[in-house]
Specification:
Elements (H helix, E strand, L loop, with lengths): L5 H7 L36 H8 L2 E6 L8 H25 L3 H14 L4 H13 L3 E3 L5 E3 L19 H10 L4 H4 L4 E6 L1 H13 L1 H6 L3 H10 L2 E9 H4 L1 H18 L4 H16 L3 H9 L5 E9 L11 E9 L1 H10 L3 H7 L14 E11 L7 E4 L3 H7 L2 E5 H4 L2 H14 L11 H13 L13 H5 L3 H20 L16 H13 L12 H15 L3 E3 L6 E3 L4 H18 L2 H11 L7 H12 L3 E6 L9
Parallel strand pairs: 1-13, 8-10
Antiparallel strand pairs: 2-3, 4-5, 6-7, 7-8, 9-10, 11-12
Helix pairs in contact: 2-5, 3-12, 4-5, 8-10, 12-13, 13-14, 19-27, 20-22, 20-23, 22-23, 22-24, 22-25
């Protein structure tokens, strides 16, 4: 928070209740609720039962319920408030992805209640929970509405739903001074209609604290109100676009901070800073407190960070909450083991080397509950993404142990591995390889270019290709660093710091190949799938991966691993440093080819072997049980 307006902010927020009432969230749909004998018909637009069942038959339920008994009473109380913040931001996330999401969910819940919770509506509610909205990813990787809503657009609900990239580009070309406003990572872009402007003015009147925190907005809205133009665009910060939700979350976070203060004053300080961040739309104070804090048992990722859901420009961040329980012993051991990052940075194949922090705030955690963009089986997080903040304060790495080491999830990975590769490689993959590769992937975000040669952030220069390139860079840095460590030296030679034993190194290499395997051709708006396909095709061209003609299984030439990784890493770093959007587009066009003779047979075998295609995560802290 900026000191300039701190005293006035305190006065303006004094009237905001610290723990505002919040209507209880609807219970999670039960997979097998008591139901009548037959399903009644539903109105048009709801998927038929057969289509819903096709996806749910490929869905596995995973329940996360760490033991919370070691939390103090103060921490237990704070956790209750944080879970409520998660519920608020969950709904906000769904709303930001589709303009009709919340209304469609409300109609479905009322329909379910009126009909007595028949199987068909219960399964539709389960599908909504799985996909966090009314749009499903089908088995062939297309995106389709399963409730009566409009199809999803690249604009999601953070730009006007009918806005096109061409229309916005033309407006920005005519009004370049508006770029920082419209392309800000935490603003909602609107058409400058009289109704939109009046609604935002009413929000500022209802919440005067927001007008105080965003003094440039009232005069801008006044000018727009005097001359509305549906062809023009303007943007409002997230706390104005989602004012009621943000104010409720603010109160709950302040109450949680006061509650946890006796048990963990540093965590309490972080929560207070983050509460103010949500209203100021400036995350610096919260990020600084988060990254540099040394919390005891609880940690929380709170806010809008990742841009993966923005399919129009790839710059808007979406909200998420991850509530975590620290594994103190594993965290202590891991921090002791990490080191030597400057040597890795200096060895990267690009010219713009930098000084990096070597004391990384990394932690091993059990997931208590995830919400919004954070929900799912995400294994690790490295935040914040803002280059300025990461340079000033560093980043924090959150490793989710009860996901990374979940035996059911690893068994699925092993089935895919063994169906894809030649029999000789079947035992190369062990749980330690994916753990090490994931850890070093997150470390990889610290390394390499943060800005292009023109001084722009990578998002500004590379736009919707920035995420795919950044994730690919971190994949490759993890392999580059771990390959450099290599196996321990021969007996009698001096020990090598951080060396991997041969079995772990081979498992890391296997995990790097597994990472590239696809069960369907990825869409352009799937940055992870795009960068994984690039790696597969590059590794194949470099001879690391060979498709055996008779069996169509993959033969791996591990001796070619270092050259294949380093050559692709050099290319990716050059694209990031160059900041040339057109060059990045040509690169992805060249390396995301999908052929029926190679990729499709492999994808078909993976689909058959992997069993479940989707994972529905339930949380004990929310009172959710396993599917009966």
């Amino acid at each position: 928070m900026h000191p300039l307006y701190a005293p006035a902010l305190a006065l303006a927020l004094a009237a905001v209740p610290q723990a505002p009432s919040q209507a209880p969230a609807p219970p999670a749909p039960s997979a097998r609720a008591p139901v009548p004998a037959a399903d009644p018909p539903l109105p048009a637009g709801y998927w038929p039962a057969a289509r819903v069942d096709e996806l749910l038959a490929k869905t596995e339920t995973l329940r996360l319920a760490p033991d919370l008994s070691r939390l103090t009473p103060a921490e237990q109380g704070a956790l209750r408030d944080l879970l409520e913040v998660g519920r608020i931001l969950q709904r906000l996330y769904e709303d930001s992805r589709h303009p009709q999401a919340l209304a469609a969910q409300d109609r479905l819940q009322k329909l379910d209640a009126r009909l007595g919770s028949p199987p068909r509506t219960q399964r539709l509610l389960q599908l909504y929970r799985l996909f966090q909205g009314p749009i499903a990813t089908t088995l062939d990787n297309s995106r389709e509405p399963f409730l009566p809503v409009a199809p999803q657009t690249p604009a999601r609900n953070v730009y006007p739903a009918d806005a096109t990239r061409e229309e916005l580009d033309a407006f920005l070309a005519e009004h370049p001074e508006r770029s920082s406003e419209l392309m800000h990572e935490r603003t909602v872009v609107r058409r400058a209609t009289a109704a939109n402007v009046a609604r935002d003015q009413a929000t500022l009147q209802r919440h005067p604290a927001l007008a105080l925190l965003h003094p440039q907005l009232p005069p801008r809205l006044k000018a727009l109100a005097a001359n509305p133009d549906a062809r023009a665009f303007y943007a409002v910060p997230y706390p104005v676009a989602y004012a009621d939700a943000m104010v409720r979350a603010y109160g709950l976070l302040v109450h949680a901070a006061d509650t946890v203060q006796p048990s963990d004053s540093e965590f309490a300080g972080y929560l207070r800073n983050r509460a103010r961040d949500l209203l100021s739309n400036d995350y610096e104070s919260g990020d600084a407190a988060w990254v540099t804090g040394r919390f005891k048992r609880l940690n929380a990722q709170l806010g809008a960070y990742e841009t993966y859901d923005d399919a129009l420009y790839g710059v808007k961040t979406f909200h998420g909450v991850s509530l975590l329980l620290t594994d103190e012993e594993a965290t202590t051991n891991l921090r002791r083991a990490l080191g030597g990052l400057q040597a890795v940075e200096d060895a990267l194949p690009y010219p713009a080397h930098k000084r990096v922090r070597e004391d990384i705030p990394v932690g091993v955690y059990e997931v208590i509950a995830d919400f919004g963009q954070a929900r799912g089986t995400n294994t690790a997080t490295n935040l914040p993404n803002e280059p300025l903040y990461s340079r000033r304060y560093g980043r924090t790495i959150l490793l989710r142990e009860n996901i990374m080491k979940n035996p059911r999830l690893f068994a699925q990975e092993q089935r895919v591995w063994r169906t894809a590769v030649a029999e000789a490689h079947g035992n190369d993959l062990t749980p330690e390889g994916p753990f090490q590769r994931t850890l070093w992937h997150e470390v990889g975000h610290y390394l390499g270019a943060e800005r292009d040669a023109q001084g722009r952030t990578l998002d500004e220069g590379l736009q919707d290709d920035a995420d795919a390139l950044e994730e690919m860079k971190s994949d490759l840095v993890s392999l580059f660093a771990l390959l450099r460590m290599g196996p321990p030296p021969p007996k009698g030679a001096p020990p090598r710091e951080g060396g991997l034993d041969p079995a772990t190194l081979r498992s890391v290499q296997a995990s790097g190949i597994l990472r590239t395997l696809q069960n369907n051709r990825p869409r352009k708006d799937q940055p992870y799938g795009q960068m994984q396909l690039v790696q597969f095709n590059w590794f194949r061209e470099r001879g690391l991966i060979e498709v055996e003609p008779r069996t169509q299984r993959l033969v791996l030439h591990y001796e070619r691993y270092p050259e294949a990784v380093q050559s692709l890493l050099k290319e990716v770093l050059a694209l990031q440093l160059g900041g040339d959007k057109e060059a990045a587009a040509r690169f992805f066009e060249r390396w995301t080819q999908w052929t029926p003779e190679v990729h499709e047979p492999l994808a078909a075998r993976i689909r058959e072997a992997q069993g479940a295609r989707y994972t529905l995560v339930r949380y004990g802290a929310l009172g959710e049980q396993d599917e009966e």
